[in-house]
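User: Sequence for aldehyde dehydrogenase (NAD(+)) below. Tokens please.
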Amino acid sequence: MTIPLTCQNYIAGEWLSAVSAETLPSSNPANSREIVATFPRSATADVDAAIAAARQAYRTWRLVPAPARAEYIFRVGELLLQHKEELAQLMSREMGKPLAEARGDVQEGIDCAYYSAGEGRRLFGQTTPSEMPNKFAMTMRMPIGVCALITPWNFPVAIPCWKAMPALVCGNTVILKPSEDTPACATKLIEIFHAAGLPKGVVNLVHGLGEEAGKALVEHSNVDLVSFTGSSETGAFVGATCGRTHKRVCLEMGGKNAQIVMEDADLELALEGAVWGAFGTSGQRCTATSRLILHRDIKEKFTHMLKERTGKLRLGAGTDPNTDVGPLVNASQLERVSRYVEIGREEGAKVLLGGAVASEGDLQHGFFFHPTILDDVTPQMRVAREEIFGPVVVLIEVGSFEEAIAILNDTPFGLSSSIYTRDVSRAFAAMRDIEAGITYINGPTIGAEVHLPFGGVKQTGNGHREAGGAIDVFTEWKAVYVDFSGSLQRAQIDNRE
Ligand code: UN1
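Assistant: Structure tokens for aldehyde dehydrogenase (NAD(+)):
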């Protein structure tokens, strides 16, 4: 076992303990006896200091030309590439995802760096004819100010990058409050921002608990924007608080994503997609496939294939190269998933595979849950409606394409979605009729790319998009009029006479 890493806050370019000097531990979910890191238990005083630093830095950072700001982010991308393996190993140990996926998580951060850096030369506004002669009318993008970024543990590098990189290129300064389950990943990431030479106070890091440091950030009067990814419950609090305190807010919350498999689908392809979508990252993605909507003509055959294939998945530590499915992130997630399977049983669902905590051999020391398939599920059951966030997929049978789409849409969420079919007309109808921010045709519900807008409709979000849509979150429009006529021109009056 290695010595735990000592994580610190990063405020105005300095590495600091919490004012209280209190710390908390973060452990390895594959072996909860191993402490991976300790981190500061920050409170209001630490948050105040970080916000003051970000506010001070904003005065000059917003004036740095966007292409120059982008060069810092490009450098972060290059450093991330150099440290990719080290970060991936740490991530596997700290939150449990298999190494290949952890590398993918860091890669998503690298992709985001290069994409965001390019945006530094593309912060276009528009010009439009004025109503008046000798007058220009145009729009320009302005930064928002001090942005609080509150991020989850399931993508401990990619999601902070999605938020911080575009925010910085647009001229904002940021305070990252990472999940208490992944403080070490966040610390390593911010070390890279530090090494890229960003001016003091432009990026700040405050560790701590959501209900303490996170809450203090969201409630603070000197924060201009909160970008939050996490549970719907916390998101509702963040949204309400930002409404009350007049902050901009970008919320990315739950999903109940479905994959439809029609009777004409390539079943092998649909199977690979379903297994990856449902059990990749142990189902701990907001894009995870948690419902399989199966046409009755292929239901029996596909279910059999799925059971066989899922039964072969190997549970283990993410750091073990033979692992297909890692542990859940912590004890409360394990308990949540167990409880949902219990609810499903009580509702009349049949546990076709899995359905229990895994406690064989070394697995007993971690938070492992067997990949689970629930059959005989109807759309009204809670397991078909509520986000489970674990390796559990429910099977719902349908008789037609129209019914499949209606059931897919019958959820309060709307993040990702997928349909497997060989019928071009159905593919286009699905693109049009599925109510979700992301739709895949013949691909799984997971695997969004950074240059496309990421986010969902209905209760998944609040209308914003991240990644390829982030510039719109982190800037606001200014309308600019330049009158060079040399005389007063009264709009709506002089040009109508
Ligand atoms: C998330 O689960 O919050 O599309 C993000 C995907 C990843 C991102 C997931 N690229 O599955």
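The longest helix spans residues 99-119.
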